[in-house]
Design brief:
Length: 210
Amino acid sequence: MSVADIRQKYEKFELLESAIAKNPLDQFSLWLDQALQAGVPEPTAMTLATASPDGRPAARIVLLKGFDARGFVFFTNYLSRKGHELTDNPLASLLFFWPALERQVRIEGKVAKVAEAESDEYFHSRPLGSRIGAWASPQSQPITRDELEARNQALSASLGNEPSRPEHWGGYRLEPDYIEFWQGRPSRLHDRLAFQRKDGGAWTLQRLAP
């Protein structure tokens, strides 16, 4: 079979203006709850897309670790490729895809580091191995597997059971100014409802052609 022949029918749900929440954060919360209830694998996994100053894009999967009216939070190594790109160009986008529900959510906005206390709190909630790993991995830098294992073993011995958060590791928050909800529909006539934030903070809603 050619990959061009692979097709999926979309016919489970619809998304109408009369039914969507007035605030996109409320709608996202509803859809995330439904993804959790449906047993969608990795429901908090999201594609994070960044770009270098010269416009070269890069995308990877990260995990959502919190969201509220201020935005969407994830944690990573500040010295990684995405960290350097967010320093130079703090505009980014997120994409959630829940195929079991035939849904995706696109989010765009400006990214900034969260407060150190917030990074500390989340870091100390992680399993010990993950905390050691944040110290052991020089993320995005060339390394052999043996070197990585050796670093992890040495730091496990030296840091003990209560390692502090490394300064190069912490959280980012994407403050959205655009959130689009996509619902698959038959004949590829999908529903796309997009919220755009005005300068005053209010959201406007419009339907986009699929």
